[in-house]
Amino acid sequence: MKVTRRVTLGGLLAASAAGSANAQQWRPPRAMNWIVPFPPGGSNDTFARPVAAHVSRTLGQPVVVENRSGAGGTLGGMVVARARPDGCTLLVANSAQSFATVVYPDSGFDLLRDFAPVSNIARVPVGLVVNATRLDVKDLAGFLAAARKAPDTINIGSSGLGTMPHLAIELLQRRTGIRLMHVPYRGGGPALQDLLAGQLDATFQPLSTVASYVQSGKLRALAVATIRRESVLPDVPTFAEAGVKDFEVSTWYGLFAPKATPAVPLDAIHAAVQAALAEPDIKRIWSEQGARIDLESRQAFGEFVKAEVERWSAIARTTGLPME
Asked: Model-level pTM?
């Protein structure tokens, strides 16, 4: 029995070492094409292009970042889902793709069924902020009390129907039993401007976007939707600390390949992306964007994506979606 155990363990270690060596030796057979399913200049571009430059140098092939926008990011997703599974065509997806099949049931692809998760790229934490002049609450407990006292009267904005901030609002209502008046905007920027102007009571926003307004007193941050407090606003409690458990929301960005792509190129690209995320210039850019870098295995990223798809798809189905 002991001999068999040694042989089996030795075989596993040898196989693991061989797989790692194969991944290190793999080079793309042609230029790589990273599809961003949104217009140029957005956050997907902001995070994809610096990483692509590092990956290009590591793997010895050009990496072209191409914008294929339309239908909430589903058109670009279809392009990659149907691409040759050789590691050369990848999707730069974000958290919105985790529930895209609910919002756009005719999208033609499913994130879990049709894609292999390759690597995380960035996670941007969000928080609940209010206009303290318009809504005089000091903390999350006060906000919840005001919402329970007058249901459907607190106006809370989002970046649009079927977006992550919209689903964050739905999750908050589900976790706490309150009822808010959802006001969808065409983007997070207009919602923030109306919040600053006193036309809106509250909204979910990336912490980096609102930090200066919170620090100047123009806005009040009630809670951050992360496991731990964030350095950009260290005095703001997490939702869990403020009394609302199991409330974690972030806008995340990641790289995906067609489902049938072999493990060797997936491992090689994952290693190249993770190495890029450890570079000083990437850390600086991410810090400026208020983004978090989480170095993790390809398997861990896949488990994270699966959990996100299951959680947000379930919530999206309760919101009156899909979109027509």
From this structure: 0.84
